[in-house]
Specification:
The protein contains 7 helices and 8 strands. The termini are far apart. A hairpin with a 2-residue loop joins strand 7 and strand 8. By secondary structure, it is an alpha+beta fold. The radius of gyration is 18 Å and the shape is globular. Helices cover 48% and strands 10% of the residues.
Length: 250
């Protein structure tokens, strides 16, 4: 077991991961494991709905899953592929700290145990990492959200996929050596590998790969349009859609 370096922690701070918090803040934390309790999750979703001015619990569930996917997946995969260090993002070790920004409802991720494991046997370590974050974490929460609000699990998984595609494309643009790029590409290919479906939960196919498609250039901007709607237009300003919304695809 090891620790992240000061520079590595500073990089992850940009993804709204925090490594220190006073007792007053942690006392208000939402433990990820508690989200599996339907009564607790229902109450929490109503809070999210009111905060985001969402039209209903379904749109609140979608927006929650987008925020949650970013907070948990982005720093975890960045650390795994860039630092060769695996964060402990198990259900029992992750917490959401209250929003401390000027923007509306952007919580922070806090890890109770901040030790990391060095990635040494890449294929085996990656499989264990995928199992922890997907089958034993996201899948379980997405199941609860789908049962509670009738939101499609495809929408929930695409909400996760868009951030994973973004962070891997970001990493590929960051690195300067072919050796670093090869590691990132290998991890990204594994993320989309159909033979890895069992690491995501009881699925016959990889729930992320169907969402990875070519981008379309519109007005000089490369856009990968979503296949499902995330319902963000049903929150805040009800007239604004995401620029990647499938309803806007030419």
């Amino acid at each position: 077991m090891n620790q992240l370096t000061k520079n590595e922690k500073e990089r992850l701070l940009q993804f709204r991961t925090t490594f220190s918090a006073d007792s007053k803040i942690t006392a208000q934390a939402i433990r990820s494991i508690d989200l599996l309790d339907v009564q607790f999750l229902t109450s929490y979703l109503y809070t999210v709905k009111d905060t985001l001015q969402a039209a209903d619990l379904l749109s609140a569930a979608s927006m929650f899953s987008k925020r949650y996917s970013y907070l948990v997946a982005v720093p975890a995969f960045y650390s795994f592929s860039r630092f060769q260090k695996q964060l402990n993002v198990s259900l029992k070790n992750t917490e959401l700290l209250p929003d401390d920004s000027s923007e509306i409802w952007l919580p922070q991720l806090y890890l109770t145990d901040q030790h990391v494991r060095n990635v040494e046997q890449r294929s085996a370590d990656r499989s264990r990492f995928f199992q922890m974050i997907f089958a034993d974490h996201f899948h379980l929460i997405w199941e609860r959200l789908a049962t509670l609000t009738s939101i499609s699990k495809q929408t929930l998984w695409e909400n996760t996929a868009v951030y994973l595609f973004w962070i891997y494309e970001t990493m590929l643009n960051e690195v300067k050596t072919e050796a670093e790029k090869a590691i990132i590409q290998e991890d990204f290919h594994a993320l989309l590998d159909q033979s890895q479906a069992y690491l995501f939960g009881p699925y016959r196919s990889n729930p992320l790969s169907r969402f990875y498609g070519p981008k379309i250039t519109i007005d000089g901007q490369d856009i990968r349009f979503r296949k499902t709607c995330c319902f963000s237009y049903q929150c805040f300003d009800k007239s604004i859609m995401c620029h990647t919304c499938p309803k806007l695809k030419p």
